[in-house]
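#struct-help
A.M.: can someone run this one for me? Single chain, 196 residues.
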Amino acid sequence: MYYLSPTYVSTIENSLSAFTFAMAAALGRVEQVKINEKYGIAKVLGTLICIGGATIITLYKGPPLFNWTLGCMYSVGDCLAWSGWLVLQVPMLKQYPARLSFTTLVCFFGLVQVLCIAAFIETDMERWKIHSEGELFTILYIGVVTTGIAFSLQAWCINRGGPLFVAVFQPLQTVLVAIMAFIFFGDKLYSGGYVL
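D.P.: on it. C-alpha cells below:
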C-alpha cells in the first residue's frame, strides 16, 4: 500500500484467481483441468484474460517505475501466498471440518505470528498505542469483519465450492476498492480502469 494506491493493489490482486487455479490444477486432486473439454478451455482462457486485464489496467497509468515495480512484486507475492492459503484450506477442512474453530485457530496463530514479527520490527512503544477513534475503528473492523467474518465465510465457501470458487470473486474487490478509494480518499479514477 505504501508503493501503490489501493486501486492498483486490488487490480493486481485480480490475478489471485489465476494463481489459485494454477496451484489447484498443479495439485491435481483439488482442481481438475480437462483441456479437451469446453469447460477446461474456458478455465485456462479465463485465467489468461484475468492476468492480461490486470496487467493492462496496471500498466495504463502508474506511479514512478521503481515504486511501481517494488509494489507489484509485493502484491504478486501476496497473491501467491493467498492462493496457496486458499488451496491448502481444502485438505485442512477435510481433516478438520469445524469451520469456526478452524477460523479461530487461524486467527490466533496469525496474531501470535504478527506480534512476534512486530515486536522485533517496531520497537517504539508510542507507535503501539491507539491515538484516535479512527484507529480503534480500523482495528475492530479488520479484526471482526475482514478477519473473523470473512475467514469464516471463506472457509465455508471453500468447503462447498473449492478454492477457485472463492478466488474468482476477487475481481469484485477491484470495483469496490476503486469506488471506496474515490469516495473516502479522493483517489482519481482513470480511463484505463474502464478498458476492460
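A.M.: thanks! The chain is about 75% helix and 0% strand.
D.P.: also worth noting: The chain has a mean pLDDT of 78.
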